[in-house]
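Problem statement: downstream parser choked on a complex file, so we are re-checking the raw output for the adenosine-5'-triphosphate run. The parser issue turned out to be on our end (a line-ending mismatch), but while we're here, posting the original submission so the record is complete.
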Amino acid sequence: MQTAVLRTENLSKSFGGLDVLSGITFSAGENENVAIIGPNGAGKTTFFNVLGGQLPATSGRIFLVGQEVTKLPPDRRLHLGLARSYQINNLFFTLSLLDNMLLALYGAEHSHLHLLRSLYGRRDYAEEARRMLELMELWDKRFEIVAALSYGDQRLVEIALSLATKPKVVLLDEPTAGLPTSEALGFAAKIRRLTTDITLVFCAHDMDLVFNLADRIAVLYFGEILCEGTPGEISCNAKVQEIYLGQGSKGAAGNA
Ligand SMILES: Nc1ncnc2c1ncn2[C@@H]1O[C@H](COP(=O)(O)OP(=O)(O)OP(=O)(O)O)[C@@H](O)[C@H]1O
Ligand SMILES: [Mg+2]
């Protein structure tokens, strides 16, 4: 049994009289990639918002590396190692890709502004920025302004920037949503490389991404975990097939 990096106990969330999450007991181990799948409205985004602290839990508990964080605000959870990817509009579009990486690495350590020029002198940042850009196969584009990158590359950079704080776990809500198929290809391998030594919990409707990236899949259905297992177990699970029946092939399990 692996150490649980992220764990919930009977986590519930209601909006007024609507029970959106009902007693979720879930855990993700060290360096594990766990996918949360489920039809539209199952509660995936709500689960991530409660985990991240953007929404308060109605009841139940959340633990990060054994420490309870249920009542902590998002910035405290981030400080303890729970990251969520930035929104794309947090990128500095008119700065180069490398500048964005350097600023994120600096911002992870400091809270005040600094002259970008002096960041070029930080060898540790330069090495880390290079390492991450190479993992994303974007090193050759480091001097391009972010606005000139493809949408897929911008999404990838957004994820990489959320890793600058060296989190223990990162939550990604539909990382390939809105990406053309041509750009989604190869995305899984790059995210896998970026998160090798981090626990990744993501949700997606893109089953190619799910099956290429997840070590384990949890199926959320009407706010409850219906079943969990390896991709092989989930793909031949009768209950899962029933949920997705009539929605076409495994690539059409709901719409983003
Ligand atoms: N702030 C809110 N107030 C009231 N109801 C909400 C709120 N946020 C979400 N819900 C409801 O909670 C349910 C789950 O929504 P959620 O967005 O978590 O689903 P999801 O699994 O992420 O769906 P999708 O696959 O479409 O992204 C839905 O019925 C939604 O209408
Ligand atoms: Mg959602």
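For whoever reads this later: The chain has two domains: 1-81+167-256, 87-166.
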